[in-house]
Amino acid sequence: MSSEPRQSGVSYEETPRIIVLDDEESIRLGCEKVLSREGFEVDVAADGSSGWEMLKEGDYDLALIDLKMPGIDGMNILKLLNENLPDVVAIVITGYASYETAVETVKLGAYDYIPKPFTPDELRNVVRRGLERRFLRLSNRRLREERERFLLDLTEERSRLLTILRAMSDGVIVANRRGELVLSNPAGRGWLRGDPQEGEVPPVIADVVKYEEISQMVERIEEDPDLASCDAELDAEDDRYFHAAATAVRDEGGAYMGVVIVIRDITERREIEKMKSAFVRMVSHELRSPLAAVQGYLDLLVDGDVTEEDSHRMLERCRARVEALQQMINDLLDISRIESGVMHREMRVQDLGEVLEEVVELQRGAATGRDIDVLLETAGCLELTADRRELEEIFTNLVSNAIKYNRDGGRVTVTAARSEDRLRVDVADTGIGMKPEVLDSVFDEFFRVRSSETASVTGTGLGLAIVKRLVDAYGGDIDIRSEYGEGSTFSVELPVQPK
Ligand code: ADP
Question: pTM here?
Fold first, then answer.
């Protein structure tokens, strides 16, 4: 005999379990025989009490219950089932079928009843109908639960998605296949006129979007089934630049579902690009003139039409120009190292007084040659945590400028002192000074004051740019006071313990 129930119309995931509660042995045996042959699992009980115990444990699908039984009678079994196991289909077996009994048993939760005596076929039919009902009830419930779970997942998913969209700084605008606006985040709504979310009917993107470039992108995507995405740059007000990307959304079959537009502020990127190209222009310009000079001298030397004395002089000039170029390249490399942060720094406790002494000593030769006095005045503990090479670079640049842009017989005074958790160094000179209008530019790359007084002074215009970057890297400050024709004072403040 097959273990698969021979049912028509309904297939069961597991073999249905049936229990027969009847004190009449022939009924119990008859039912067991007929229903087992149908492929069901059948148990029997001869009285209500043991039947109820079995029902509680047995995980039955259907119970055939005799109304008149010793122990707990059929009516009470129905009550117990109704209260405790409402999913078990109850079919009443009754010897005296009457309208009243039928009504009462159905009231107590019975699905149907079968009057004695019954034929095997009547039994099979009533059991089949009962099982079908149970199967339908269970599968309906499962479907409902699945649907509820799916809806819950969907709501959670949607609210998670909306939270992410809301938090995004990029603008997001979504249109459906008819080009109607279906979703936008707060950043995206800045690109739309009015508050399109308010209306009941979704507006067409082209009618509400502020920039024509966006509606053109949507149009292109809608019209060209092969176009996966396209982008455009938007020039907004206040010199800001935006990049908009539109991506087509297609279903698994490739059918067009709509378009997602993401708009990103690229102003900062643009600014950096502009600065980069300005810097490259500046560097090329600065390199060109010394190289042109060297080439000019070399041309004359190659032509050979120069005296030995002239050729020596020209070679000397070439050397000076090449040295200056080398200095410029070193300075540029320093700047790029500071900017990129890939400097090898050894942060240790340093005595700034000692560093300044060394810097001044090394520059004294250049000063003495022009009869310039260099004084160093230090007070108190001047210890700070820093990279020694960087300290030397900052103060060598400042002291060397104070000498370079000084007058013969002038003076340079370097004073250093501690104030709270900072060290302050003033480098003051009695030199040519600077006009107020140039003070803002001295820290720019390649900036040099062009005047008769500076014409003979060599330099790259990068020294103060390096100083400024280094001081910034320590979280310090640099400040200039200058009087044209009188002299300048550069003041540097560095924290004792940089962060
Ligand atoms: P460089 O000295 O190589 O030209 P810097 O960046 O060190 O470049 O200085 C930029 C410009 O600032 C100098 O060319 C000069 O015109 C001006 N400058 C710097 N220091 C002084 C100073 N102590 N007195 C007067 N002018 C100065």
Answer: 0.54
